[in-house]
Amino acid sequence: MKIYIKNHNYHYEIENLTRIFFPNDKLEVTREQTELLEIPYIYTELSQGESENKVSVSVCIDGETASAEKLVSGNEDAELTMALALFEILKGITNINPPWGVLTGVRPIKLFRRLAKDGGLNSAKETFLNNFKVSQEKTDLSVETEQNESKIIALSRPESFSLYISVPFCPSRCSYCSFVSASVERTKHLVQPYVDLLCREIELTAGYAKKLGLRLESVYMGGGTPTTLNAQQLDRVLNTVKASFDMTHCREFTVEAGRPDTITRDKLAAIIGCGVDRISINPQTLNDEILKIIGRRHTAEQTLDAFTLARKLGFNHINMDLIAGLPNESYNSFVATLDKITELDPESVTIHTLSMKRSSNLTQSGKELYADEAAATAKMLSYANKKLHDNGYFPYYLYRQSRMVGNLENTGWSKRGKEGIYNVFVMDETHTILACGAGAVSKLKDSKKDYLERIFNFKYPYEYIGRFDELVKRKERIESFYAEYH
Q1: Domain with CATH 3.80.30.20 in the chain
Q2: Where exactly does CATH 3.30.160 map onto the chain?
Q3: CA 406 → CA 127, 259, 324, 363, distances in Å?
Q4: Would you state the pLDDT for residue 36?
């Protein structure tokens, strides 16, 4: 499908909005003007007038045509007007009513917070409902999530930062995954040299934090699957963090244990022995047939065993991740999984919606998104909302991704006082994130101007190892950034 753009720069918003309704179509954005438009098409134009501008949208898809024209004054948002016009046309043609309306961004809660700060809570709610066409359910979710997020954000200070540590190895690649992670079966020879350099980078990064007088608020070790490292390697990396950074003010130390088939007693003992107070055990589903389909080499029983073992060893803050909308998983299967998870009574539960990343095996194999799957997934999330509320959980952070089933969301739920605060800090872009390891991205924050600057580490373990000296050079920017912006 071609999207024609004339006299405006709203191509990004128009393309993303179109993708909500046509997630499987190849979209081509063009500024070339031709007398005969290629069908199917979406045509958008902004015409400049003396006192008013005119927004024009016309659509021809599957034999149906529709168009709209709107006049906008100088103080009106022409981009939003164009998006709303296109939204209404596509909603009518497809009979799809996206629950997040015209919002296509990753951080709707951050947007809601800004609106509430500028005009008050009621004004923000009205804007979501009426201007952005967000559903009542998602607006209510936004209100509650923002209120809980704000309490965590208020903990941050101008000198605050968080630390991210990347372990980009997995026992196997899940079919839905697009993260840069390497199968440990094929890259086993890289693991030890990677750990050696990762510890060096941690020490180097801690040196900058100490020199700049930064205050560490939270630590998150993710991946990949950190527990693909053995107990000795985990102990070394985690103790390097403790020895290198001032942990006095650290509120949370998380290790994403992740795959139940990588969790062992000695690894958990090493993790808790290093002072880690939060882990994540991620079943995604407790349906063994679905686990096979998505390439997870573990069973539901292994998940339950890993959880029980973690409890016995003293972990009193365990998060569990589930995915709604997995291939072939029915609503009843999702309900059975969530019911069992709530029986375990973890301190927090994250409900993800399947995102069809272009580089994932699932997408590459030809899997597409369908309206009936979107409806079933929306029903799953509605069930999760009620079930988790009824069991004492509340939403504390939320974000969205491209090509999500049903254009839905990922939501973190927790018991009171058991929020994953790193998740809030990173998603809100509250303060600087210093990141170590392959694929990691440091995000340097100027709190006064709300400006972010990124330092990218090399993506792949072999690059990280082979070009480590270049990475060290890049990280010199940490010190000069703070000299410039603080």
Answers
A1: 152-473
A2: 2-94
A3: 22, 26, 11, 16
A4: 77
Count of Cβ atoms closer than 10 Å to residue 439 Cβ: 22
Interior/surface letters 177-211, b for 16+ CB within 10 angstroms, e for the rest = bbbbbbebeebeebbeebbebbbebbebbbebbee
Answer CATH for 2-94 from 2.40.10, 3.40.50, 3.30.160, 3.10.350: 3.30.160
Q: Which of 168-172, 247-251, 254-258 has the highest mean pLDDT?
A: 247-251
Cα(180)–Cα(460) distance, integer angstroms: 7
Q: Please determine, for residue 111, whether its predicted confidence score (pLDDT) is greater than 80.
A: yes
Nearest to 104 by CA among 424, 412, 400, 471: 400
pTM of the model: 0.92
Residues shown for the chain: 486
d(CA 479, CA 261): 41
Q: How many CB atoms lie within 10 A of CB 451?
A: 11
The continuous run of DSSP H or E covering 379 comes out as helix 371-390
Nearest CA to 201 out of 249, 248, 167, 232 is that of 167
How many alpha carbons fall within 13 Å on the CB side of residue 279? 29
CATH number for the domain running over 152-473: 3.80.30.20
